[in-house]
Specification:
heterodimer; A: mainly alpha; 0% strand; globular; B: mainly alpha; 74% helix; elongated
Chain lengths: 229, 104
């Protein structure tokens, strides 16, 4: 039986290559915090309290544009809904852990912890591997994320406006979007979501994003249903 | 509502989403009628945020050659589509925007 220490170290080593994506993303979130109206402390706190890059970036952006409270709350939550799927997939393994571990360990669940864990765990995986490999991956990502956003906030105050670094928000979302489009129905969801968002620009305080999301998901579901007929 | 209250609500909701199925004992897997639409949430909401930033950077629709963010964004979309990676996409978009800013 492998020791907890070995499994933890294995998780740390396995996730190391992914940090090449996590570090610049965290720096961008930090720089964006410093460049917008959310406030450095509140913006930085999103890394601890929310700990989900795309949702944090959306919230920081919406606070800056002065969206209403409903939109500020609903948009990041909608972005994070995908984690329900991750939770369902990991539930099979986490059943072997203690109730306390099952309660706190999902805090570290991200796209990367999910992908790394599912690639590693076998159906009959032992609880030591499940707990400590997951924690090796999760705590490495958490520490890196906190450090990168902190550095970003500190450095960001020095970046001149002429560099247009706020444009990185759109670019990050485009990169995530390309990864999220795995099949035709997802492309339909994205196109309809994007077009409706542009058409509903005049709707008050960012509510157009919610309308566009509902339209996109509906269109994607219909396309999916038609493909399966 | 203060920004702090909103951050805490979003953080709590995100934690509950993460906990959801891990917390429900004996229940494994999301029902298909929830799982299938969930797959379209990410593409729809990401596009809903990103596309207006390109098409209407100043708040009103601007599909002209003067909209440098639209041109840089289209280049970034091409790179994103090819590489599916964040680094090259951000680099392509930012470098394009800086060059366009210098030239025009």
């Amino acid at each position: 039986m492998a020791s907890a220490r070995d499994r933890f170290k294995e998780g740390v080593r396995a996730v190391a290559p992914l940090l090449l994506g996590t570090i610049p993303f965290g720096l961008i979130v930090g720089v964006t915090i410093a460049a917008t109206k959310i406030g450095n402390l509140a913006g930085w706190a999103t890394s601890v309290i929310i700990f989900a890059g795309a949702a944090q970036l959306a919230l920081i952006d919406l606070v800056d544009t002065g969206a209403i409270a409903f939109v500020l709350i609903a948009t990041p939550i909608v972005i994070n809904l995908r984690m329900a799927m991750y939770s369902a997939a990991l539930a099979t393994y986490f059943r072997k852990l203690s109730p306390i571990d099952r309660l706190w360990m999902p805090y570290l669940l991200t796209d990367q912890t999910f992908v790394m864990s599912m690639a590693r765990f076998r159906p009959d995986e032992d609880p030591v591997t499940i707990k400590w490999y997951y924690l090796g991956v999760g705590t490495t990502l958490w520490t890196t994320w906190l450090l990168a956003t902190t550095v970003g906030v500190v450095v960001g105050a020095e970046v001149p406006v002429e560099w247009s670094l706020d444009f990185t928000i759109a670019l990050v979302f485009l990169a995530l979007l390309a990864r999220a489009i795995a099949a035709r129905p997802a492309l339909v969801a994205a196109v309809v979501g994007g077009v409706v968002a542009v058409l509903s620009l005049d709707m008050p305080s960012g509510t157009g994003i919610m309308v566009a999301t509902v339209a996109g998901v509906t269109a994607g579901a219909i396309a999916d249903w038609r493909l399966n007929q | 509502m203060s920004t702090w209250v909103i951050i805490v609500i979003v953080g709590l909701a995100t934690y509950l989403i993460r906990l959801s199925f891990v917390g429900i004992l004996g229940r494994v897997g999301v029902p298909p009628y929830i799982e299938r639409p969930l797959r379209f949430v990410a593409p729809a909401v990401l596009a809903a945020i990103a596309i207006p930033e390109l098409v209407a950077p100043a708040g009103t629709i601007d599909i002209t050659i003067d909209n440098l963010r639209l041109i840089a964004g289209v280049i970034a979309i091409a790179v994103a589509w090819q590489t599916r990676a964040m680094g090259p996409t951000i680099a392509a978009g930012m470098v394009s925007l800086w060059i366009l800013d210098l030239v025009f």
